Amino acid sequence: MDRYIQIHPNDNVAVALADLPAGEVLHLSGRDVALREAIPVGHKIALADLNELDQVIKYGYPIGHVLRRVQSGEWINEQVLKTSLEGIQSYVYQPVKTELTIPADGRTFQGYRRKNGLCGIRNEIWILPTVGCVNGVANRLAERLQKETGGKGVEAIRAFPHNYGCSQLGDDHENTRKILRNMVLHPNAGGVLVVGLGCENNQPAAFREFLGDYDTERVRFLVCQEVADEEEVGMQLLREIYALAAADVRTEQPLSALRVGLKCGGSDGLSGITANPLVGRFSDYLVTQGGTTILTEVPEMFGAETMLMNRCASQDLFEKTVRLINDFKDYFIRNRQPVYENPSPGNKAGGISTLEEKSLGCTQKSGQSAVCGVLAYGEQVEIHGLNLLSAPGNDLVASTALAAAGCQLVLFTTGRGTPFGTFVPTLKVSTNSRLAQQKPGWIDFNAGTLVEGEQMEDALERFICRIQDVASGAVTRNETNGYSDIAIFKTGVTL
Predict the structure, then answer these.
(1) 479: part of which helix (H) or strand (E)?
(2) How do residues 187-218 score in pLDDT, each as one tens digit?
(3) pLDDT tens for residues 125-161?
(4) Which of 90, 121, 262, 372 sits CB 3.0–4.6 Å from 385 for a disulfide?
(5) Cβ atoms 431, 448 nearer than 8 A
(6) Which of 375, 358, 246, 369 is nearest to 313 (CA)?
(7) Residue 121 φ then ψ, to 5°
(8) Contact at 8 Å (CB) between 55 and 19?
(9) Is 132 in contact with 166 (CB distance < 8 Å)?
(10) What is the pTM of this model?
């Protein structure tokens, strides 16, 4: 097993793949570098002397500048390295070729083909409140149906409480409506009971109209103020929904029916070396099979956004991506917050020092595919291939946005670990083996083997098979634990 790596030949830093003691000598690019201090795993080591304001190069790109003179063999972390990003930037479209030579191999999975033509990878019954006031009713109904049926014939019975749907204005109100609408129409649900109160801003009748075409047998409405006993009426509606969903069966589906979200959280210095490149390879593979992937976390694209912009399939998509980036920067500025206040404390502890470094690792999840679509928050994906989605970096908000955009599954890379899951299976990919061993109840796939001798092609094959299994019904850790939540993006005032 290698103990350190120089990712790109032009890099002036190496990354520790294990805890390295002071005095150890690194042999890289025909030179020897003696460590002047102990270096934690995932952290950066200077390979040359650097003067104040010199750029640090990692992944072949600048990731910031040093604040003082740094000697070869020193530890480079957030104490000596600062972002070089500032303000709103202007961009020029410089398209690059994005041709992929991955052959279609005809793989399939077992899924649920819905009446509207979409394919689900789960067959669950969901109880969705239109407003937070009826969260308790939704939870009680889910508990009662589970107790009455034992969940036989369906894969889960879930309520999704949230604190919105009333006292909201403008974009916040629309965001709530869009996310809930997209959940109602999601193919992972075999049936949905929408539970309203009756006096909320998100009026049940108006929300029903907002849905557009939907399966009226599988999507039912309960307005609590309009009935004497909301639980009994709700249970009757749920029994009717349950009878239909319990009769559904999996059938063979092409991989082109998959829509997969790409997300990371609690990243570390190995994220851009192991898990994120692996997910990027999978994204390219799925796109060549006719499937769809969606990348989000716009603030974590800052610093590497031009790489995505230049992969846009057209000038129009380039301009949409520029707006995607600059609109989020404007959001920070309007709220008098620093645009580049990233990475998080956990990222820094794991070896990520600047936003440029974080973004260069983060965007690797998109692989090398052309950008074929750009989605606003709450918008549903329609174009096959790689899409970009507007959403913040917050893990639960962004994962909810990915699922609401139409993803049946979210791939979530992490170097620090997290137990959460959104309303679709949320498959955790560890960047290092230590995390996978420490948290087997959280982690679904270990990509840390990529720095322990496993070849990328072998890891990719294992990964594809794992995703096929999950799409065909194998449960993820968040599902086993019952961790399935939603969070809706809020930007404005509350009445």
Answers:
(1) helix 477-481
(2) 999 999 999 999 999 999 999 999 999 999 99
(3) 999 999 999 999 999 999 999 999 999 999 999 999 9
(4) 372
(5) yes
(6) 369
(7) -110, 0
(8) no
(9) yes
(10) 0.97
